[in-house]
Amino acid sequence: MSTNVEVREASGQGQFLSGRVAARIAVVAVVVLFLAYLALVNATLAVMWLFGLAFGVILQRSRLCFASGFRDIFLMRDAGTMRALAVAIGVATIGFWLVMQMMVPEPSFGSLPAAAHVIPIGLHLVVGGVAFGFGMVIAGGCVSGTMYRIGEGYVASWASLAGILAGLYLSTLTWNWWWTNHIKDMPVVFLPKWLGYGGAVALTLLALAGIVLLSYWWEYRSGPMPNFALGGKNEMPPMRLGAKLRQMYDLVFVKGWPIAVGAIALAVVNVFIYIYSRPLGVTGELSAWSDRIVSGLFRIQAPALLGVDGLAGCNLTLGAGSWWTSEGLFLDGGLIIGALVAALLANEFKVRLSPVKRRYVQSLIGGTFMGYGAGIAIGCTIGAFFSAIPSLGLNGWIFGFSLLPGAYLGVQVIKRIP
Amino acid sequence: MKIDVRGEICPYPMMKTAEALKKLDGDESLEVLTDHAPALGTIPWEAAKNGYETTIEGAADSEWRLTLRKFEKEAKPQELLANLQEQLAALNVSE
């Protein structure tokens, strides 16, 4: 075997007992103390903080990026991330089914399980999905991706977040038009109502398996690919307990996780958080931030949003009430801080300024497309896709398939932006 | 040729490397400096498809120097790719 990729580590990198250990312990201690404080004042916020931290750690460790899941299909003819997402969504589908079956044992009467991300289908999902898919490729990351990259120190991701907030505010301003002219008349399609849970789960898993097969076909249609045999050489010498623990620590906190591990871990978190209260979602809370910022800075009152109270999932929210008692703040905040902690532990945190100034503009514009799309489609790649398909609603599929042409358009555009 | 793509957002490190590869003369090598860990998975892959082998070394914390050289003899992308995964696993980062 020839060694085409040699790996030489920088000196001192990855040392367990280096001078950085104290700083790392301090950061972890602050996060845990804050958790303890929250647990004393408000247990729900503490749980949300914990889920948020897990969310951020998982995304940072596995670099799970929904944007690259859709983008690399076109940019590199690589559907590996999409495959991991399909498998993870399958895992969440089984978990969600058990939760929903307990809440609504007989779905044929038409009632929906509480909090399931089943929302009206229609053009808003298509327009929102295309806009979102386009925006996430332009900005170099979707909403959750933007937030974990903020935790890793990417300054351009702040521009994306500003764009997302602006886009969400724009969708707040146009929501009533969408609701009155389209969404309120559109049907909610909860597959178990027609197929029973068994049929709906079976159909969903079959469709996901179809995506896995299609992803392989897409990669192999240009000819044979190299075969990566599993296993490989195993020449590990016996090791002492200390070395073994160090190895396991490195495996979890220093080396990255395979993307499928991250995706499946996130699916498990999604099932747990649904058992606790509701499926994962990010953008509903962000829309409240955008309203609080606009009403706080400019004293402009956004119009009351029609119909959102009857919608499950990441519906737009006006920022009534306090910042500090909102569950979503601790989930979304935990996502950023969890990614920050994971990056610090792995020695991967760095303030990264883009050498190309137009990248900030690009991130801002991409973010605005994403924010607007997430607003009218009632969620992002998490709420309207990763949590929606396991909710057994047709809406998750429509949004997911609409992301594809958006991502394709985005790829054509970034190829032309130097 | 040397390119510095530090600070660049996804997927520009890989795209700029692919562009630079096209501009190389003959047996010239390409040195890429990046701080974007996901690029360690994408750049060697893209390089191998074009018949280049990659050496990765840590340059600083969270910074890596990738050296892309034309594969000796004739380009055998299949062989290059086949060894890629095992060798990346040895690096202290994920793809």
Architecture overview:
The complex is a heterodimer of chains A (418) and B (95). In chain A, helix 4 runs parallel beside helix 10 (259-276) and helix 5 (123-139) runs antiparallel to helix 13 (358-377). Chain A is an all-alpha fold and 418 residues long. Chain A contains 15 helices and one strand. Chain A has helices spanning 20-41, 43-62, 66-75, 80-103, 123-139, 143-152, 156-181, 191-220, 241-254, 259-276, 283-298, 327-345, 358-377, 382-386, 394-414; one strand at 7-8. Helix content of chain A is 65%, strand content 0%. A four-stranded mixed β-sheet of chain B has the order 1-2-4-3, covered by helices on one side. In chain B, strand 1 (2-4), helix 1 (12-23) and strand 2 (30-34) form a beta-alpha-beta unit. The chains are: A mainly alpha (418), B alpha+beta (95).
Residue share in helix of chain B: 25-40%
Strand order of the largest sheet of chain B: 1-2-4-3
Give the biggest beta sheet of chain A: none
Give me the secondary-structure category of chain B.
alpha+beta
SSE sequence of chain B, one letter per element: EHEHEEH
**How large is the count of helical segments of chain A?**
15
Total number of strands of chain A: 1
Order of helices and strands of chain A: EHHHHHHHHHHHHHHH
Q: How far is the N terminus from the C terminus of chain A? A: 38 Å
Structural class of chain A: mainly alpha
Report the total helices of chain B: 3
Largest beta-sheet characterization of chain B = 4 strands, mixed
Mean pLDDT of chain A: 91
Q: What is the overall pLDDT average of chain B?
A: 80
Radius of gyration of chain A: 22 Å
Q: Care to count the β-strands of chain B?
A: 4
Q: Report the span from N to C terminus of chain B.
A: 24 Å
